[in-house]
Amino acid sequence: MRNTKTLKSMFLCGMVLVIAIPTTVSAKALRSPVQTGDDIIIAKGDIPTPEKYHSAITNYLSYTTEQLGKMVSQLETLNKSLKKGDLKTAEQAYIQAHQYYESVRPIIILFGNTDRTINARADYFLDKEKDYRFTGFHLIEYQLFDRKDSKAALAATDELLLKARDLQKRVATERVEIPKLVQASADFIEMILETKLAGKENIYSQSDLSDIAANLQGSQHVIKVLTPFIAPNVLQRIQNNYQKANEIMKPYQLPSGIYQPYNQLSKKDMMALYSVLTQQAEDLAQLRYQLSVDVYYKY
């Protein structure tokens, strides 16, 4: 008798499940109504960048490839200088190579884990400089400026050169969507505010001022290629902020093109840079919305 009741209960439960499952699916299907007419909203990931932005993207990627070419050239100079034992030339070549990298860094960050493999700082890792993953620019910087070990610096440079040449070839064939390019203009400024203005990027070479100038240049170039699409009043405010920042930086530039060590930056100029760049970051963060490339396009 008990077995009969048990079988009946199992049968009834099974019937409930069979009936309930299609009902649940139908309910979920009803949550996304079909869009009709001319006012359809399409997700950003489903559509290509509008054609009007194609030339701007092409121009900026050409600039990126050019900067990476200069970076590779400086790394080759660094390599040769280390082989000759010319540490002074090697140190300058390192700073200039990293400058060129920083002038396009937000674009490189879009390419997966690339930035972390060639530009990771020691403080990314628990074991700091002893971590096997600590490679690339800052390992060279550590061996060259802190340890004064030209042999170890040369080995790190050889490894970075292989990755840098590969990166240059890769970027030449890549494509960036317009929201990412617009966002890069603000990312450059955020990098300055988060690390370089506090002297945290290049702790061994004290070359953060050179990188600040490079980030400013990269951000300005984004705005340059996007100028035809930005409202005149917005563009004027953005350009004024760049001008103010460049005027603060100008006295620190050396004839070689690199900048004085970070510890030469006065407290007054540091606070002035912080003020103008904070405002610039806010203005640039609004560009995606102002250009209607924030989350999706409406057709």
Automatic annotation (TrEMBL):
Highest taxon of the lineage: Bacteria
Residue ranges of domain Imelysin-like in the record: 57-278
Q: Which GO terms describe its cellular component?
A: cell envelope
Position of the signal peptide: 1-27
Q: What is this protein called?
A: EfeM/EfeO family lipoprotein
- Lineage summary: Bacteria, Pseudomonadati, Pseudomonadota, Gammaproteobacteria, Enterobacterales
Query: What are the subcellular locations of this protein?
Result: Cell envelope
The entry's keywords: Lipoprotein, Signal
- One Pfam family named in its UniProt record: Peptidase_M75
The text of the family note is: Belongs to the EfeM/EfeO family.
